[in-house]
Amino acid sequence: MEAGRARRAYNGFVSFSRRRGWTWVLLLTVLAGYGWAQAPARPPAAQPQFASPQAELEAGIAQTRQGHYRQAIPLLRDARDKVAEVFTAGFDLALCYAATGQNHQALNILGQLPEARTLASRAEVQNLRAQVEIALGHPGAARAAFERAAALEPHQLPLYLFLADACLRHGDYSLAQQIITAGLAQFANSARLHYEQASLAADTNHPRAAARGWLAAERLGHGRVIGYMARAQADIAQAEFNDAVAAARQGLKRQPKDVLLLIIFAQAVLRSGSPPGTGEFVAARQALSLALGLSPHNAAAQLTYGELELIAGKPAAAIPHLEAARRAAPNDPAVYARLAIAYQRMGMGPQAKAALTRLAALNQARTEAYRKPGAGHAGYEGMPH
Description:
Layout: E1 12-15, E2 26-29, H1 31-34, H2 53-65, H3 69-79, H4 86-99, H5 103-112, H6 119-136, H7 139-152, H8 157-169, H9 173-186, H10 191-203, H11 207-220, H12 225-237, H13 241-254, H14 259-272, H15 279-294, H16 299-311, H17 315-328, H18 333-345, H19 349-371
Antiparallel strand pairs: 1-2
Helix pairs in contact: 2-3, 3-4, 4-5, 5-6, 6-7, 6-8, 8-9, 8-10, 9-10, 10-11, 10-12, 11-12, 12-13, 12-14, 13-14, 14-15, 14-16, 15-16, 16-17, 16-18, 17-18, 18-19
């Protein structure tokens, strides 16, 4: 399970809109699970004046494209009932609500959308609805929305990738298995789907299957960033930490600012046992500093930085990072395990007790999720790698 933790910085919430000529995905990395879209709201600024509702809509779309979801919301909300493109304004508003964790508002807006004109747009609506239902903990509704989206456009790889990731972030292993299986039936040679398959195995405590899945992803993604990510994750799963460090380093030569690779590199260094003060430990700190500079609210980076400070014997320095990770990923057991240690070392007994209580509750919930029919690993071993 630990080996797969950082992979959630790779995927996230998606809209693969072609209506406005976007790139094939709009990536909100990592939505409700890892908090990039959940930065604290800034004090409200004076609203600019627009020449027309259409101009306000276009400004809202531009903010959405740039990842400024909170800033886009008032623009889209104001323009929605005043423009001819009611569907566009409403869909983007629902997307921004979901991106900022306002899932009930997103679901309400989706329910008010007019019928989409194209098959692709109808599939997008169901994709977004499925992700919102997953975040709200409505597995039946999420499954139904996924099945509608897949029926409309079964050959869209992002549908499977990002819904599977959403399921893993929210602990719906049964639906994750269904989505990954359906995706592999369409895209048997997708390195990214095999990466998600390995992540499911890691999260359901099947490290050998996880390693096999990551090795399959490495073969299929050889020479690409996804291949290096998968190789490093496979090495971590097999406790080959020095090899994981080397694989992550290779990937970083190609993409030196890839946030996930920076996190995986640091995790591998920490697992390898490199003591504080060594060159590798310093490099891990630098990698995490760069990752947080690129993505300040990334929970995996904050968690790993907190762990690094604990290893360095600096619990006071660890706590701010671990608390930031908790805010971004409130349901990640690893956060509370590290927080309890840090609080204990600082003599903060009540806080340590509260962290341990939360940890026990999350572990119990995860155990129950493993036991659900269809969760765990049913049929997994027989899948082609």
